[in-house]
Design brief:
Number of domains: 1
CATH topology: PF0523-like
CATH superfamily: CGI121/TPRKB
Strand content: 5-15%
Largest sheet: 4 strands, antiparallel
Helix content: 40-55%
CATH architecture: 2-Layer Sandwich
Length: 173
């Protein structure tokens, strides 16, 4: 698995990006490639839990969707409905900060796909990957307060706990 975070230096056309991700995945024998708005990803633990549960669902033939890439999106969002997960976690025309996850068994092919993504989409990589920021804290705390969580329980660790619980609950069905 390879995780990267960066800033798009040019505007992307979302449909062509989706086609390109599928093509890269197919051409490099990769299991899944997912690119998301990085604002919605809290931590490495958030990603690792979603990846583990997605792969586990695939192995046990319990996928909610028909692809591992979409399954990963659902677990990251803690959401059963694909349209809601895409709306909240997916890339939008205005997205500039992206997070990518490439899952595969062959490291060489993972790096080939990664290098092609870097060159195609003019990504400038962020060296401080996956650090919870004040911007992310504000985004998640506002979202969770609207859902009925108590602000006092939403420390940085509290937000991670809520996200991990959502992933686990989704796995329970």
């Amino acid at each position: 698995m390879l995780i990267f975070e960066g800033e798009l230096k040019s505007k992307i056309e979302l449909y062509s990006l989706g086609q390109k991700l599928k093509e890269l995945s197919d051409n490099n024998s990769l299991v899944a490639i997912q690119m998301l708005d990085s604002l919605n990803i809290w931590s490495l633990a958030h990603i690792e839990s979603a990846v583990w549960h997605s792969i586990n669902a695939l192995k046990n033939n319990h996928l909610i969707s028909n692809t591992l890439a979409i399954e990963l999106l659902l677990y990251l969002a803690g959401e059963r409905q694909i349209s809601k997960a895409i709306e909240e976690y997916g890339l939008k025309e205005r997205t500039r900060k992206v997070l990518g996850i490439i899952i595969g068994s062959n490291h060489h092919n993972i790096h080939l796909a990664f290098n092609e993504l870097l060159s195609l989409y003019s990504l400038e990589l962020n060296k401080k990957i996956l650090n919870p920021t004040a911007e992310k804290y504000e985004y998640f705390s506002k979202k969770f307060i609207q859902e009925g969580y108590i602000k006092d329980n939403l420390s940085y660790q509290g937000i991670e706990t809520v996200l991990l619980q959502r992933i686990a609950l989704l796995a329970l069905g």
